[in-house]
Hints:
The complex is a heterotrimer.
Chain A: H1 30-44, H2 47-50, E1 64-72, E2 78-79, E3 82-83, H3 84-97, E4 102-113, H4 118-135, E5 139-147, E6 155-165, E7 181-184, H5 190-196, H6 216-225, E8 231-233, H7 239-251, E9 254-258, H8 266-275, E10 289-292, H9 294-306, E11 314-320, E12 327-330, E13 336-338
Parallel strand pairs in A: 4-5, 9-12
Antiparallel strand pairs in A: 1-6, 2-3, 4-6, 7-10, 7-11, 8-10, 9-11, 12-13
Helix pairs in contact in A: 1-4, 3-4, 6-9
Chain B: E1 5-13, E2 17-22, E3 25-30, E4 42-46, E5 49-53, H1 56-75
Chain C: H1 10-23, E1 30-36, H2 37-45, E2 56-63, H3 65-68, H4 71-81, E3 87-91, H5 105-110, E4 114-118, H6 121-130, E5 136-142, H7 147-159, E6 165-171, H8 174-183, H9 185-188, E7 197-200, H10 203-208, H11 214-219, E8 224-226, H12 231-246, E9 252-254, H13 266-275, E10 276-284, E11 288-297, H14 306-309, H15 325-329, H16 361-369
Parallel strand pairs in C: 1-2, 1-7, 3-4, 3-5, 5-6, 7-8, 8-9
Antiparallel strand pairs in C: 10-11
Helix pairs in contact in C: 1-12, 2-16, 6-7, 7-13
Amino acid sequence: MSSIKVKSGYVRALDLKHGHVEMAHGSGGRATAQLIEQLFVAAFDNAILRLLNDQACFPSSGGRMVMSTDSHVITPLFFPGGNIGSLSVHGTINDIAMSGAQPRYLAASFILEEGFPLIDLKRIVDSMAEAARNAKVPIVTGDTKVVERGSGDGVFITTTGLGWVPDGIDISAHRASPGDKILVSGFLGDHGVAVMAQRENLSFDTTIESDSAPLHELVAHMITVVPDIHALRDPTRGGLATALNEIARQSSVGMLVQEEYLPIRESVNAACEFLGLDPLYIANEGKLIAICSPADAENLLTAMQAHPLGKHAAIIGEVIEDTHCFIQMQTRFGGRRIVDWLNGEQLPRIC
Amino acid sequence: MCLAIPACVEKLTTDNHAIVNLSGIRKTVSLALVENIQPGDYVIVHVGFALQRLDPAEAERTLAFFAEMSSLDNQI
Amino acid sequence: MKYIDEFRDRNLALQIASQIKSEADPAKHYQFMEFCGGHTHAISRFGIVDLLPNHVEMIHGPGCPVCILPVGRVQTAISLSHIPGLILCTYGDMLRIPTTDGMSLLKAKAAGADVRMVYSSIDAVNIAQNNPDRQVVFFAIGFETTVPPTAVALQQARAANLKNFSVYCNHVLTPPAIAHILQSPEVRELGLVQLDGFIGPAHVSVVIGSQPYDYFAEEFQKPVVIAGFEPLDVMQAILMLIRQINTNRIEVENEFSRAVLQNGNLKAQQTVADVFELRRTFEWRGLGVIPYSALKIKAEYADFDAELRFPIEERSIADNKACECGAILRGVKRPQDCKIFGTVCTPDNPIGSCMVSSEGACAAHYRYGRFRDHQSSISARV
Lengths: 351, 76, 382
């Protein structure tokens, strides 16, 4: 043993291949520091984070700021088209972007379960880093806690974002007014179906991938063409139906949607037929709903379609007066029905 | 009641099962309740079981009946 | 989606609609009952009502196995799920049904019970095989369509000599329920409800065939058209019923000929006969006790009968007094005629059976159709 020279303060490097999250990684001691430096800082690498302070300090440009926070829990953690890491970056960027703001900084907080393989954690952190880099929104501060085995589901990630709203932009879900047109940026339901296909008790094979994507550049492009967009929302949990009902309630209006204009992939429809689900309630992670005046609608549509994330954008309906705030849908078949709020969790059914 | 969907049998697998395909969604279903199923057949799938082979000639007949009616209507 | 999209074609729908309009006698009022929740769902989801003239009216029948299951049996399933170590498997449809004390299988799960949603009866058998130290109960529901898969599960469990698998059987039968409605005093003697014909079940008939409906045409003098669950199937069936009435015919016709044979699926019937026999009586929520309207597990499979394996007491729990589900299921009242519809009783807080599943008459009207009750206040401009 004497032949091995140990440097003072030496800590064995994190075993990112075979190691697991241990309680010590959340203790605040050397193991925590090591996890932060060798995994998080190495991956997220930026000047502010590198200072290793408990907070991020950056200059402000004045004007209106936007802040949003979002907790991410998902089973399974890895799915076609992404994982909880990329999802947690895109989710918060999109929440910021739906105000018309440009997201500038992100904070990320991790709750890790004891025993979680470090190799999986590295995959998640790397994909967060890549998502943040591609979106040009750095993760500048963060936190890590470890809970005992059995007290978590592998990894929970909370991200918080900060952004600046350009002058003259007033986008809010209470601004929808009768006559306004309703647009969506592309195919609906991809994320939810891609995730569902991975669940063991439903397992079916499909090539559908999650649409998880950052929408802030699409939004920036949209507001340069039509600055007076009335409302934006990303239809995540609960899908299009839930998002439209929320906007309708906030604006005290009704809506009339044309089923034939809804962009939905045939395979998403097929999965829904199998499981007895309605694609309008299936989650999206890279789509937005835009509401604008009828005069602006065609311009906005063209602008959206010119962007890669809005290629399949469509005008799907219009805002109408309705004290009941019903979302009605003209069915492809020629009839009408309500698109109601979701009742509880959407469960596959057999009858 | 009784959600069931017609899907195309793509391939027979072991243990009297088959992989069916509905517009790119593939699922393994049991053939325990049907007989003489061949790849290319359409079967009605309910809770993971093929319940019946769909008769393509009858489907055509039904559709033709709809169409006939519309052409009839056009003549009026 | 082949064999689906063709049967949802709008242009053909409009053609059939105009044919219905031209053939339906304006001096008559046609009232047809679609027995199945599947048809109710199609009518609501595709907005078929808007394509029908006012004097052709659809009455939603009791063909939703979730809706008609008495609360007592749901409570029994919840009690089973509380047995330490037991895994209760069931279809997604059953998880949310509330009992009178506000419990549900989902809530039982939240409170610690091991309740698992399965997509197929075979999944439940697999769970039993993978958990040999634990009892696994499959809480089985459904009409004739869903019975054969349960029968196969029981056959497999017996072949594998599984000691830890059993079925809590709640399978019910369609023809006795139709007969019950036709024999109800409102329909038969009092003439309060005019029922001019039935749209017969799609996938139930795939299994049992078209022959069992001959009885209704003969005994009750009611036309029956068996129809698929796609919207064009429903439209076509309505047209066929109108034609029967206009030409004074009373027959069983089969619009769903692409999947329904006169004798049904004999292999499926044999499988069912191997495992199940008739139950002397069964209580239907909203309709009451109907003789020979359900199935029980045969003595040969008694080892797999959860009702024999576990101490289960039959509990009959009355529905809320204000609830009109019974009358709605028999076609005497419409959902919007019920005092508590949409006020106390909503899909989020269902009081009666018809609000429980999205295929129930009240839930379908609430979720898809209730804007029609307020139509005057809506200024649609498209």
